[in-house]
Amino acid sequence: MNNMPMGGGGGGLGKSRSLNSTVVDQKQSKGDKVLVLRRMGKYLFRYPKTVMLALTLMLSSNLLALAGPMLSGKAIDAIQLGRGAVDFDTVWLYGGLLIAFYAISGLLSYLLSVLMVNLSQKIIYTMRREVFEHLTSLPVGYFDTHATGDIISHISYDIDTVNASLSHDLLHVLASIVTVVGALGMMFSISPALVLVFAITIPISILFTRYKTKRIRPLFKTRSRKLGELNGYAEEMLSGAKTIRAYSREDVIVSRFDKRNDDAVEAYFKADWHGAMIGPSVMFINNFSIALVTLFGGILYMLSGTRADLAPVFVITLGGVSAFVQYSRKFSGPINELANIISELQSATAAAERVFRLIDEEPEKADAENAVALTDVQGDVDFRHVKFGYVEGKTILHDLTVHAAPGTTVAIVGPTGAGKTTIINLLMRFYDVNSGAVAVDGVDIREATRRSLRGAFTMVLQDTWLFCGTIFDNITYGKENATMEEVVAAAKAAHIHNYIESLRDGYNTMLTDDGVNISKGQRQLITIARAMLADAPMLILDEATSNVDSRTEQQIGSAMKRLMRGRTSFVIAHRLSTIQNADVILVVKEGNVIESGNHETLMKKPGGFYAALYNSQFT
User: Fold this and answer.
1) Cα distance between residue 204 and residue 281, in whole Å
2) Longest dimension (CA), the chain
């Protein structure tokens, strides 16, 4: 099967690229932040051994670092202040242990960083593959209503943002929790009285952080959405660069880009500005708490030396004060760092919601439970009282009844928006009818497997699609096991063989970026050769010769006739000269077949729409 991307163009689908983000946002539920984080975490735990090793390294490194202030305090207490005596053995012991603990902790942190880089690459590979694989399962209608640039933004920017959070921020949060809990425990063991300072400052930090988090979360969602809109617009404009130049519309599209760029920059500024306020504010609160600890710790130390009746809970040594201050920094430091990465977490959560929303999009409906595979297809096609519209309340086809006998050529003509391409979309079951039925060989296509249905067709579309690969690979896209002799025969029939042979690498010539290194007409001839090579009982030609000149069109006319011989063919054409030999010509207008018959019959019809349309092209 030559299954190429096909838009819903002609029947009034109403592709609304610019409305993409709005539609997405309307479908988006507010969601639960915890649920999003949990789904993000699942990607980590797809590699349990790596994660467990990372957690072990993180825990070991932090516990060793937590022992540092205690060892430092004991070394200080080995100095007998006022007596001029120093227990150097004790000082050297604890000093040596301090150096060893910090050195081992640093080494473990380095190993953890290396491990997380490796884990990060695995996660981003898995997530991108999952997203792309899901994209291949989505119905054609999804791509008709979503900008390509915005979809690419999901795969690149959003996943990169999520990956940064998974590989760094979540592990950093866990490390911070270990440090905070460990430091708090050590501070309680040194002086429970001094811990009371944090009973005042920590609630202030938490309340402030929660307040700012609620404010900035919507801002990061807006930031991701605006970037998607910007990417979508850029992709759309770049794909039409020639048309823009031809109409000298550069200034117009640049001004429109500037508007979207300004919106994206403003969204970034608002999100980052509000996010940047959290870190310094929490840092001020934490530094204030450390100042209070130093002040009250010094007071308690002086009282401990002069008051024998002082309660044990208030007694503290100089080494204890030093250790407590260090632990208070370890306690408040992670809190401050957590505040600094809240903006990153908010950005990652907003990006994750966009990615998960894409992953949660309903895939193309599964085949019916008792679906049958079409075999030995004869090509008998029936449209029975078909009613269809892309959007609820806007009907494109009202009551379409058409019969195509096996081996006949059915041409479909009519004004733009009449529903011609819609008929093809229904025939290929890119969309399902609202009412009525489409049948192939008497089988309702909704009761047949999509693979067998689409495998019964080969297609040549107005919008040519070539992928990055050799010309040989592109021609054999619908028949991968084809031999070189078969490919050459198809190319000769399509009148493209001589051009291919004139290229330096012949059939091994690489085509890049949808074949931009060859002309549009040559691209279309390659797709025609592809269709000729595929052995399918039914054929769809949607403006198949629109990109070739009249002389080339005449040259491949005989080849096209051979291609259609014995196959049920559906031909959409604006050049009426190409369909004069069709067995049946359907004239479609506003979703209804208003005339049908062969060329001679329709031309003789008085006041006929087809006759008027034909005469307008040749007079």
Assistant:
1) 11
2) 125
Of 340, 463, 437, nearest to 15 by C-alpha is: 463
Residue 123 tokens, joined: 């996660």
Q: Check residue 58 and give its pLDDT.
A: 86
Report the CATH number of the 381-618 domain.
Answer: 3.40.50.300
Which of 5-9, 209-213, 376-380 has the highest average model confidence (pLDDT)?
376-380
Q: Which tokens go with 129? A: 């593959």
Q: Which of 162, 150, 155 is nearest to 133 (CA)?
A: 155
Helix spans in 534-583 (H): 550-555, 557-564
pTM: 0.66
Helical H segments across 240-249, by residue range: 241-246
> What is the Cα gyration radius of the chain?
35
Q: Supply the DSSP symbol for 462.
A: S
Q: What length does the chain have?
A: 619
- Sequence-separated (6 or more) residues with CB below 8 Å from residue 554: none
**Cα four-point dihedral sign 210, 211, 214, 217:** negative
Measure CA 498 to chain center. Answer: 41
Contacts of residue 63, Cβ cutoff 8 Å, sequence gap at least 6: 178, 182
- The predicted pLDDT at position 472 comes to 92
pLDDT of residue 440: 93
Residue 301's φ and ψ, nearest 5 degrees, are -65, -45
Torsion, CA 409, CA 414, CA 419, CA 421, rounded to 10: 50
User: What tokens does 618 get?
Assistant: 């040749």
The helices-and-strands tally (H runs, E runs) of the chain is 23, 14
Local confidence band at 4 (pLDDT 50, 70, 90 cut-offs): very low
CA nearest to 347, candidates 259, 266, 267: 267
pLDDT at 401: 87
DSSP 391: B
Rounded-to-integer distance, Cα 114 and Cα 167, Å: 11
What is the enclosing helix (H) or strand (E) of 412? Answer: strand 409-413
Q: What residues does 79 pair with on adjacent strands? A: 86
Terminal alpha carbon distance of the chain: 40
Q: Which of 316, 222, 210, 297 is closest to 264 using CA atoms?
A: 222
Contact 33, 152 (CB under 8 A): no
Residue with tokens 């819609």: 422
Amino acid 336: pLDDT: 62
Provide the 8-state DSSP code for 240. Answer: T
Q: What is the distance between the alpha carbons of residues 290 and 328, in angstroms, rounded to a whole number?
A: 7
Give the separation between CA 408 and CA 570, rounded to whole angstroms.
9
Q: Which residue has the tokens 């691209």?
A: 523
Coil, strand, or helix at residue 510?
strand
Query: 446: number of CA atoms within 13 Å, CB side?
Result: 11
* % of the chain beyond a pLDDT of 70: 84
What is the spatial distance between Cα 553 and Cα 546, in angstroms, rounded to a whole number? Answer: 9
Domain boundaries, the chain: 48-359, 381-618
Inform me whether the pLDDT recorded for 76 exceeds 90: no
pLDDT in tens, 500-559: 999 889 999 988 766 667 877 788 888 888 888 887 889 888 877 666 667 767 666 666
CA distance linking residue 4 with residue 600, whole number of Å: 34
Q: What is the pLDDT of residues 83-124, one digit of tens each?
A: 556 777 887 888 888 889 889 989 998 898 888 888 888 888
Fold held by 48-359:
ABC transporter transmembrane region fold (1.20.1560)
| The pLDDT of residue 603 is above 50 | yes
